[in-house]
Amino acid sequence: MEVVKVKPGTTFNCICQGCGGTGVYKGSHELGGIAVVCFYCNGKGYYEKTTDWYDMYYCDVETGNIVTYAGDGKYELAEFKKLKRRKDVKFVVYESRLSADEEYLFEKGYSIAQVLPYSLFLKGFLPIPMYRDDCPARFEQHYGGEGFTNDCNFSCFTDCPKFGKKECWNKYYKTLSYIRRQNKLKGVKHKHIDDDCFE
Predict the structure, then answer these.
(1) For 112-143, how does the pLDDT look when each residue is reduced to its tens digit (9 = 90+)?
(2) Closest C-alpha to 172, from 190, 146, 192
(3) Are strands 74-77 and 91-93 parallel, antiparallel or unpaired?
(4) pLDDT tens across 145-157, in order?
(5) CA neighbours within 13 Å on the CB side: how many for 14?
(6) What is the C-alpha to C-alpha distance for residues 57 and 52, in angstroms, rounded to an integer?
(7) What is the C-alpha separation between 26 and 85, in angstroms, rounded?
(8) How many C-beta neighbours within 10 Å does residue 138 have?
(9) pTM score of the predicted model
């Protein structure tokens, strides 16, 4: 392979090292076919990288792909092309936060923790956050948003009497425009989300 060093200041979509370009993470807490959205890239599988003088990225002269040196005279792809598929994943959630398997996530065929089929995730959809185990304000700290507030003044989210309550999440879904725009969630219905949230 013939390569040339990428010039400093070059911007490209770099494969996320947290998930290896899959957009999801699967560890000891994610049992069965469950995986969680990657914390580092928010499910995209990549992050935008602007090279500096010390970065060791190269351009494959033949293909034009940006690669990085992997050792033993070999190079591996660094530039993101598309989400890599994992064979051990069937469903995707934002966070398991406790050991979760399919028995925990479903009840009589309905999602009880805002599960998204992996096939939809690969098409660009993202799951809805798990309302019963989380708070919209805390969720935004990790994944971004538009500054959700429900007049809460607690130093610890779990001290809030509304923590994990439907009231806050319904307000979040109705007022947060990016969850429709970015996640393409219109028409994706879940058991514990009011239907009018996505009208």
Answers:
(1) 556 788 988 898 887 776 655 667 777 776 66
(2) 146
(3) unpaired
(4) 666 776 776 666 6
(5) 18
(6) 10
(7) 13
(8) 16
(9) 0.69
